[in-house]
């Protein structure tokens, strides 16, 4: 083999080996870190036509609306639990230890990541609420199709859903009035 | 009135961009000098009217013109003036107008500084900028008009700016980021112009290089400010979340970094040509992809903004046209710009090839991690999420070979290098890096963490090989120091850039492995001990801000031995109009560690959930990014980009004198 061909062979084969390693690494890391997304209904009744329920111990993501009045703190610690609902009637309970995000409110859509500890109980390692209050995770919006999602900024027109929301968020009644008057609608 | 002026100016800017996209190219086809030369005035026109439009919107915000829907949705009379100004880019329509202003400014800068380029080439580059402009102006006029009116129901007051955005970081983050994003369009325009003309040589690389580096510097700073802002503003204590929106800015950065290095090879050795062109196309396409991801809301992201599907479809269509068009052109013309040159297996070319392959791999990894959930969902396989650990793991493995190659690169000669010549320098660098990598954690930390040691070894390897390279460059000189200064700014740019990367690795390795985080329940009067520090929750007060009310907690921080460090205030703000709660973290900073206190929520018995972090060396991450950017600025200011201009000026003067 002449030196030039040999050089090319070395380069090509080392690139191939490198690419193979990279692909393997990516696939391995992916297999360790992919989490499926469920809605509360899917956890209780199963997902898709085959009605596959997640197994206890599985890592997953769940998205739903926080049921008004379900937020409970336990004892002197920082453990908090709340229920999530989508189209109903299925509800699941999320347990979380730590600080909830600023935008976490009752009635608001949130996403929790964690481990299924019981048929309808999740120990969350992370709770996410979105920057934008009108924003809803597309997966959740999909599941909620048909149910009216009222952006908080328009919730001055009272509804049952809205009342629960206001109760849960009671430290701002004064502010509520001022903003209600601010808009000339 | 002012709204209509802005809207009309925007339409005029669109008209200018449409003319700019067509006339100069016709001129090139017909070799008509006048039609080519008109590219410059058209560019200035596009810039001028975009500026008018932008000023109109700024004016609308400053005078609280709530008849403009965008102003009503994003501002309020109680909002401080400086945030009324930055609210211009606080939401979709306005930030796109800023984007357009930046795009038009780049085009105008190109028009000003391209006078030394051949007219044909400058006409082509500006025409490509015009084409990009056509796409974006159309997008704005059709789907995101910032001057839409609220008539006849004009609100008395506005809804206020998102509280997260009422922060100094937000003043500079988006403009910097957009300068970087859109700057990639300049590199793209150069590449397309080169393909159109079929001429791609060292001179081309020399023209396009400072522009690419400038865009890269802005992108680096933009991402850095974003990371810093998220760190103190979100109250989570993280500096990077691998969130789709962050990834969207990271993708063009990775491709841009590869492009910068590949351009160096094209300039110095006249090779890697078609690869460079492909990278330029990719970098800009990834910028567009990022815009699409952010603006269409197809991805679940903590940043995702309320979005509109027609916008997504438009951007997707535009992205398709840009990618398909430029790749088609590439397929037809790439053969023309192919290069043949020879280099050995151990040469700087091969090391830079390695650098490029690793950066491209990293780009692919981020792309896969960001898009896979979307593809998975579209295939009907259900929703998935790919978490931080995936990216962290893969990036750790990619950084190792990257840093090792980075050490070799600058030391190695173009074409061929005998390894024996470098053996002693390399062995010394390895010995020092490994020694310090183990010794420092062993001396200063309680536990020696394997990953921290690995990171430190890689960082010191880069530092010592860089030092060895500098020593090598002046080894034959008699006066070492003056010789060092004479190395040239471009060279120092590289040195600073690489050292910046090392500094960043140190920051990441230390903070990821030695940070302490605790969430505690505290009432006023309590003291919590975290790490070597005591945090005394002294008092809680109510405060009134311009457009918010706040509960402020005062903490006294002291060391274990009781010596007081500082008194800091952490706040929980309630923005009364936007009706949002927002955490204002308390930071106590020195170069080697951050103490970070974020108030959580108030609990039933009046105590508070408090999150306390000790983050060693976290500042080094951002310092590294700043160092890299300074390196970039040094490179741009290199003599060889300026000298030529001076020479040409002299030549022009001479010509003028002769003509007289």
Automatic annotation (TrEMBL), chain A:
Gene3D superfamilies linked to this entry: Nucleic acid-binding proteins
Polar residues composition bias: residue spans: 151-160
Subcellular location(s) of the protein: Cell inner membrane; Cell membrane
Q: Where is the composition biased (Low complexity)?
A: 161-173
Q: Which GO terms describe its molecular function?
A: heme binding; metal ion binding
Record topology, Extracellular segments:
30-185
Note the SUPFAM superfamilies from the entry: Heme chaperone CcmE (SSF82093)
Q: Which UniProt keywords apply?
A: Cell inner membrane, Cell membrane, Cytochrome c-type biogenesis, Heme, Iron, Membrane, Metal-binding, Signal-anchor, Transmembrane, Transmembrane helix
The GO annotation for biological process reads: cytochrome complex assembly; protein-heme linkage
One GO cellular component this record assigns the protein to is:
plasma membrane
Q: Where is this region: Disordered?
A: 150-185
Q: How does it sit in the membrane?
A: Single-pass type II membrane protein
Can you tell which superkingdom this protein's organism belongs to? Bacteria
Residue ranges annotated as Cytoplasmic topological domain: 1-8
Q: What is the predominant subcellular site recorded for this chain?
A: membrane
Q: Which NCBIfam families match?
A: PRK13165.1 (NF009638), PRK13254.1-3 (NF009729)
Sum up the protein's function in the record's words. Heme chaperone required for the biogenesis of c-type cytochromes. Transiently binds heme delivered by CcmC and transfers the heme to apo-cytochromes in a process facilitated by CcmF and CcmH.
Q: What is this protein called?
A: Cytochrome c-type biogenesis protein CcmE
TrEMBL record, chain B:
Q: Which family does it belong to?
A: Belongs to the CcmF/CycK/Ccl1/NrfE/CcsA family.
Ranked from the top, the taxonomy reads:
Bacteria, Pseudomonadati, Pseudomonadota, Gammaproteobacteria, Alteromonadales
Domain of life according to the entry: Bacteria
- TM annotation in the entry: 6-29, 41-62, 96-114, 121-142, 178-198, 210-230, 250-266, 278-306, 312-332, 353-374, 394-414, 426-445, 451-470, 491-511, 617-636
Q: Which GO terms describe its molecular function?
A: heme binding; heme transmembrane transporter activity; lyase activity
Q: What does this protein do?
A: Required for the biogenesis of c-type cytochromes. Possible subunit of a heme lyase.
Q: Which residues form the Cytochrome c assembly protein domain?
A: 89-296
Which one Pfam family would you cite for this protein? Answer: Cytochrom_C_asm
Coiled coil where? none
Report the record's Gene Ontology biological process terms. Answer: cytochrome complex assembly
Matching entries from NCBIfam families are given as: nrfE, PRK10369.1
What coarse category fits the chief subcellular location reported for this protein? membrane
Cytochrome c-type biogenesis protein CcmF C-terminal domain location is: 316-639
Compartments where located = Cell inner membrane
**Record's bilayer topology term:** Multi-pass membrane protein
Report the protein name in the record: Heme lyase NrfEFG subunit NrfE
Q: Which UniProt keywords apply?
A: Cell inner membrane, Cell membrane, Cytochrome c-type biogenesis, Lyase, Membrane, Transmembrane, Transmembrane helix
Native species of this protein? Aliidiomarina iranensis
Answer yes or no on keyword Lyase: yes
- Looking at the UniProt record for this protein, which Gene Ontology cellular component terms does it annotate, in alphabetical order? plasma membrane
């Amino acid at each position: 083999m002449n030196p030039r061909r040999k050089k090319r062979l070395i380069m090509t084969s080392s690139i191939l080996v490198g690419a193979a390693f990279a692909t393997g690494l990516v696939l391995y890391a992916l297999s360790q870190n992919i989490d499926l997304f469920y809605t509360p209904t899917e956890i209780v009744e199963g997902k898709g036509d085959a009605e596959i329920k997640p197994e206890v111990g599985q890592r997953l993501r769940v998205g739903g609306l926080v049921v008004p009045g379900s937020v409970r703190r336990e004892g002197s610690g920082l453990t908090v639990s709340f229920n999530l609902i989508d189209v109903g009637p299925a509800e699941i309970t999320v347990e979380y230890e730590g600080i909830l995000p600023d935008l976490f409110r009752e009635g608001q859509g949130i996403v929790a990541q964690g481990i299924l500890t019981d048929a309808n109980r999740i120990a969350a390692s992370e709770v996410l609420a979105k920057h934008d209050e009108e924003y809803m995770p597309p997966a959740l919006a999909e599941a909620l199709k048909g149910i009216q999602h009222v952006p908080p900024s328009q919730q001055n027109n009272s509804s049952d859903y809205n009342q629960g929301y206001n109760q849960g968020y009671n430290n701002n009644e004064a502010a509520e009035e001022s903003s209600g008057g601010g808009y000339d609608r | 009135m002012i709204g209509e002026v802005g809207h009309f100016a925007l339409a005029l800017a669109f008209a200018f961009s449409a003319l700019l996209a067509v006339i100069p190219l016709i001129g090139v086809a017909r070799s008509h000098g006048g039609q080519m030369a008109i590219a410059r005035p058209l560019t200035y026109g596009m810039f001028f009217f975009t500026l008018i439009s932008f000023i109109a919107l700024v004016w609308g915000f400053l005078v609280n013109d709530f008849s403009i829907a965008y102003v009503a949705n994003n501002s309020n009379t109680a909002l401080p003036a400086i945030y009324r100004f930055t609210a211009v880019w606080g939401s979709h329509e306005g930030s796109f107008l800023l984007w357009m202003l930046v795009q038009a400014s780049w085009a105008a800068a190109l028009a000003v500084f391209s006078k030394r380029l051949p007219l044909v080439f400058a006409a082509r580059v500006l025409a490509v900028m015009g084409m990009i402009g056509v796409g974006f102006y159309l997008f704005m006029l059709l789907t995101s008009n910032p001057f839409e009116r609220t008539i006849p129901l004009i609100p008395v007051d506005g809804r206020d700016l998102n509280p997260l955005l009422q922060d100094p970081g937000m003043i500079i983050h988006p403009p910097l980021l957009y300068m970087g994003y859109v700057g990639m369009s300049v590199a793209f325009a150069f590449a397309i112009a080169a393909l159109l003309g079929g001429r791609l040589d060292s001179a081309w690389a020399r023209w396009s290089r400072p522009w690419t580096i400038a865009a890269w510097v802005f992108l680096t700073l933009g991402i850095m400010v974003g990371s810093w802002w998220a760190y103190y503003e979100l109250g989570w204590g993280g500096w990077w979340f691998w969130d789709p929106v962050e990834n969207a800015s990271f993708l063009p950065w990775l491709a841009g970094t590869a492009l910068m290095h590949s351009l160096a090879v094209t300039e110095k050795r006249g090779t890697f040509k078609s690869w460079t062109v492909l990278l330029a196309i990719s970098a800009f396409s990834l910028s567009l992809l990022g815009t699409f991801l952010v603006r269409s809301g197809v991805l679940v992201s903590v940043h995702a903004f309320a979005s509109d599907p027609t916008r997504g479809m438009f951007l997707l269509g535009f992205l398709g046209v840009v990618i398909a068009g430029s790749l088609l052109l590439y397929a037809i013309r790439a053969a023309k710009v192919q290069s043949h040159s020879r280099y050995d297996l151990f040469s700087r070319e091969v090391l830079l090839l390695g650098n490029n392959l690793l950066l491209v791999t990293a780009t692919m990894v981020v792309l896969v991690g960001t898009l896979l959930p979307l593809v998975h969902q579209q295939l009907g396989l259900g929703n998935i999420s790919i978490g931080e650990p995936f990216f962290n793991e893969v990036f750790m493995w990619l950084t190792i070979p990257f840093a090792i190659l980075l050490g070799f690169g600058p030391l190695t000669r173009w074409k061929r290098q005998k390894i024996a010549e470098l053996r002693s320098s390399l062995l010394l660098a390895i010995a020092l890096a490994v020694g310090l990598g183990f010794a420092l954690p062993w001396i200063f930390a309680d536990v020696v963490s394997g990953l921290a040691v690995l990171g430190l070894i890689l960082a010191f390897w880069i530092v010592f090989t860089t030092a060895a390279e500098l020593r090598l460059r002046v080894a034959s000189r008699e006066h070492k120091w003056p010789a060092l200064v004479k190395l040239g700014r471009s060279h120092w740019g590289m040195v600073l850039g690489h050292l910046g990367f090392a500094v960043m690795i140190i920051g990441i390795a230390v903070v990821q492995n030695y940070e302490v985080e605790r969430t505690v329940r505290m009432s006023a009067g309590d003291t919590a001990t975290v790490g070597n520090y005591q945090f005394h929750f002294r008092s809680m007060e109510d405060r009134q801000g311009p457009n918010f009310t706040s509960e402020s907690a005062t903490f006294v921080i002291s060391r274990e031995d009781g010596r007081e460090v500082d008194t800091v205030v952490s706040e929980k703000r309630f923005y009364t109009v936007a009706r949002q709660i927002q955490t204002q973290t308390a930071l106590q900073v020195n170069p080697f560690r951050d103490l970070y206190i974020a108030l959580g929520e108030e609990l039933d018995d009046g105590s508070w959930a408090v999150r306390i972090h000790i983050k060693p060396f976290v500042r080094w991450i951002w310092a590294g990014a700043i160092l890299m950017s300074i390196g970039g600025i040094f490179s741009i200011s290199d003599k060889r980009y300026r000298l030529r201009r001076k020479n040409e000026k002299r030549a022009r003067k001479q010509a003028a004198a002769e003509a007289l």
